[in-house]
Amino acid sequence: MIELFEAVFRGLGQGSVYALIALGFVIIYKSSHVISFAQPGFMIAGVVLVTYLVELPGIGFWVAVPLATLLTGLFALGIERAVIRPMVGRPIFAIAIITIALDILIRTVAHAYLGINVRHVQDPWGLRTMSLGPLTVQQRHLAAVLAAAALVAVLFLFFRYTRMGLAMRAVAQDQEAALAQGVSVGAVFAMSWAMAGGLAAVAGSFAASGRSVDPLFWLIALTALPVIILGGLDSLPGAVVAGLVIGVAQALTQSYPHWVSFLGTNASVIVPWLVMILVLVVRPYGLFGTREVERV
Amino acid sequence: MRRLASVGAAATVLVLALTACRADDDPGTNGIEGLDVGPGVTEEPCPDAVNEDNGCIYLGILSDLSVGPFAPLAVPLTAAQEAFWQRVNEEGGLTAEGLDIAFDVDVVSYQRDTQYDPTEHSRLYEEIKPNILALAQTLGSATTDAILPDMQASDIIAAPAAWSSLYAFEEVILESGANYCIESMNAVDYAVEAHGIETVMAVHYEDDYGEDAAAGAKIAAEGHGMEFISVPTPIGQDNQAEAVGRVLAEQPNLVIITTGPAEMAAIVGGTAAQGFTDVRFIGTSPTWNPALLASPAAEALVGLYEQTGPWTDGFDGDTPGHQAMRDALGEVDTVNDGYTSGWIWQYPIKAALEGALADGDLTRSGVRAAAASLTSVDYEGMLPAGAGNFADGPDGQLRANTINRPDPESPTGVSVAVELTSFPTAEAYELTQPCYELLDD
After folding, report:
1. Distance between CA A80 and CA A73 in Å, rounded?
2. Mean local confidence (pLDDT), A238-248
3. Residues of A at the B interface (Cβ-Cβ below 8 Å)?
4. Is residue B178 classed as helix, strand or coil in its secondary structure?
5. Is position B13 within any domain?
6. CB B240 within 8 A of CB B270
7. Phi and psi at residue A53, in whole multiples of 5°?
């Protein structure tokens, strides 16, 4: 039973990373109805930035991560202003394709900076473990859970109590009505991209804890796709819950592969997609997504 | 009448198109200074030629140069190959006794980034094929498989950037160094001698690379009467928890790893982090990256990991070939054995081109024939004398490896602990088919 709970905790750690990446997807989708496939690019750009910043004198992990978050957020904002904003009014599909191109472009440049060797964020946890009651857990997983919890709390306060947060909620509900009320929709778009970029950088930094950053690192962000579909494309709580669900499902199938042996070896790789499909059969709009009613 | 004219015109276009296709498939031969030449050879100098009076031999490179999984290895590998041919060109290029012309070699004009994608690999191969004599590099097993039938049909030889046992049976692939299968046999035999092991597990990718090494480990383990466990694992550090779980559950004495470097570190580090350290890990040569010594898994790697190596020594070796490589490359930002491998893989291509020139036949078929008749290649000490015996097919394969240990003092992060050695299982093994085909037997 101890092993089971340890696997669940490991899944919560991984799921927290998925949740942070998924929140970025959802924030952009809520503001502009665009699924931005550039999130993996922002994540690896942020992580590569951290690996360089931690090498500067006097800058450790704790300074490098907020700094990289800020810079990646500003970078994402710049991308939105320069590339996405001129596309407003164009088909959503075309914008989504542009974000795929952006992702490939950003990843290619980031990989050039990654160089021929793997790099490290020099996190304070490494592979060290600690006791949590009767459980032995890796410190990095606990750190990811705490970081995700803190950021979710900050986002909650931001959307509930700040002027920009309220404006973003208004635009998410009805863009034209918000515009008529004097809300700067352009500023909301820019802010949503900046937030998504920053969240991707934080998620990447915690995902890179205790491991190396290599050219395949971006694949982690791909798992955020079933997460956002499972949680509901326009649901922030859905992104968090689905992220944790997928993380735990993956960890359990990694620890107990015989549970899903009918799916072949290493079934944990397809489990996120399988869970997504199973849930969508019952709830087509995801766990927390808004059910859209359209006249046909 | 108009319909008849239309049909006639369409038929004419079709015939012309078919003729064009045939012309492309069979490019024919020409002559330069009494030498038979085919596609990829010109009397005109190479672009940015070192020797303006020389003709040019164009070699293609199909590599993983940007976002693919092996880019960290492929970039230095390709840089070393450019440096190799730059050195050849600076020494006057390639020629043969009695010829009035010499050739520089160009490996830049038809260099393509296929991103380790078989479809892209195949498409870009078709794109450069009309203009190249041979391939200086085709990176990856699955990607090379995609173009192999056409290479055979078109007599295009290539240096691989992989060590699959399949290539022992392919005349058009000039493989240097022991293949993954032999490498793992040597690893198991070494571990039996050095660590007194009793059970062997192979954690491996589910492809030619992983299964070739796992099959070698299985053959050696069964030869010693030991239990063997095969654990396929997917790509990506995040996906190694299941493999770690299997190591913890089965508690083998030896784990042969055939993955990428980051995955290897995740497996070794993950196992040690969960308290199981009564095990040895030996990774095939592509599992190592010197930067892992700065990773959170470094302590576990230094204590538990060893690497099998295909060459007499790493980047900082002291053979004439190593010295020539370092001189040709000049200052490199980060030392990596991708440079060493890329450089060494070019020696057989050079030998084949020299053989073809000596035979007066610098066509694709001439180069293929010259390659197939090589009984040894001068690797300038980077491989032992007698290596590069392509004339004897599988029997001519080199069967020796080094055993390397993590060494923070070494520029490549490892140093040779056991010199290039052919252990008993590999020495006695008769290669009759690619090893990966035997894994499920």
Report:
1. 11
2. 96
3. 10, 14, 104, 107-108, 111-112, 114-120, 123, 125-129, 138, 207, 210-212, 214-217, 219-220, 251, 253-255, 257, 265-266, 268-269
4. coil
5. no
6. yes
7. -65, -40
Give B36's strand partners. B31, B361
pLDDT tens for residues A139-167? 999 999 999 999 999 999 999 999 999 99
Quote the minimal CA–CA distance from B242 to chain A in Å: 4
Characterize the bridge pairing of strands B111-113 and B158-161: unpaired
Q: What is the model's pLDDT at position B14?
A: 46
Position B18 confidence tier, pLDDT thresholds 50, 70, 90: very low
Q: Which residue has the tokens 């009767």?
A: A134
Are B170 and B319 in a shared domain? Answer: yes
With respect to residue A296, please indicate whether it lies within any of the assigned structural domains: no
Domain presence at residue B25: no
Instruction: Based on the fold, state whether residues B213 and B343 are members of the same structural domain.
Output: no
CB-CB neighbours of B349 under 10 Å: 28
- The answer to whether residue B44 sits within a structural domain is yes
Let me know how many helices (H) and strands (E) chain B has, helices first. Answer: 14, 16
Residue A54 has pLDDT above 80, yes or no: yes
* pLDDT above 70: residue B169: yes
Give the gap in angstroms from C-alpha A109 to the nearest C-alpha of chain B.
9
Cross-chain residue pair A127–B273, CB shorter than 8 Å: yes
What is the ipTM for the molecules in this complex? 0.84
* Residue pLDDT, tens place only, B392-401: 999 999 999 9
Spatial separation of the C-alpha atoms in residues B318 and B381, rounded to whole Å: 9
Instruction: Give B340-390 pLDDT, tens digit per residue.
Output: 999 999 999 999 999 999 999 999 999 999 999 999 999 999 999 999 999
Shortest alpha-carbon distance between residue A264 and chain B (Å): 11
Set of chain B residues whose Cβ sits within 8 Å of the Cβ of A3: none
For residue B349, the domain's CATH number is 3.40.50.2300
Q: Are residues B418 and B370 in the same domain?
A: no
Give yes or no: residues B235 and B376 share one domain.
no
Overall domain count for chain B: 2
Q: Residue B293: which residues within 8 A CB-CB, separation 6 or more?
A: B301, B302, B406, B408, B413
Euclidean distance between CA atoms A23 and A21, whole angstroms: 5
Within-domain flag for A270:
no
Whether B78 and B38 map to the same domain: the answer is yes
Comparing alpha-carbon positions, the chain B residue that sits nearest to A139 is: B273
- Which residues are CB-contacts of B49 (< 8 A; sequence separation ≥ 6)? B56, B89, B104
- Give yes or no for residue A86 having a pLDDT over 80: yes
Residue B368 has φ and ψ, to the nearest 5°, of -65, -45
Q: Do residues B272 and B320 both lie within one domain?
A: no
Instruction: Give chain B positions within 8 Å (CB) of A212.
Output: 237, 261-262, 265, 289, 291-292, 295
One domain, residues B49 and B137: yes
User: Does the residue A40 lie in any domain?
Assistant: yes
User: What is the per-residue pLDDT for B32?
Assistant: 79
On whether residue B15 sits in a domain, the answer given is no
Tell me the chain B residues in contact with residue A115 when contact means C-beta distances shorter than 8 Å: 72, 333-334
CB pairs < 8 Å spanning A and B: 120
Pick from A119, A217, A268: which is nearest to B291 by CB? Answer: A119
Which of A212, A246, A265 to mutate to test binding with chain B, by most B CBs within 10 Å of its CB? A212
Tell me which residue range forms the domain holding A64: 2-221
Smallest CA–CA separation between B66 and chain A, in Å?
6
Number of domains in chain A: 1
Indicate yes or no: pTM above 0.95.
no
Residue A251 in any domain: the answer is no
Interface test with A, best of B75, B242, B246, B337 (most A CBs within 10 A): B242
Residue A198, min C-alpha distance to chain B (Å): 22
Q: Which domain range does residue B227 map to?
A: 180-309+399-438
Both tokens of residue B221? 């383990």
**Residues B319 and B367 placed together within one structural domain of the fold:** yes
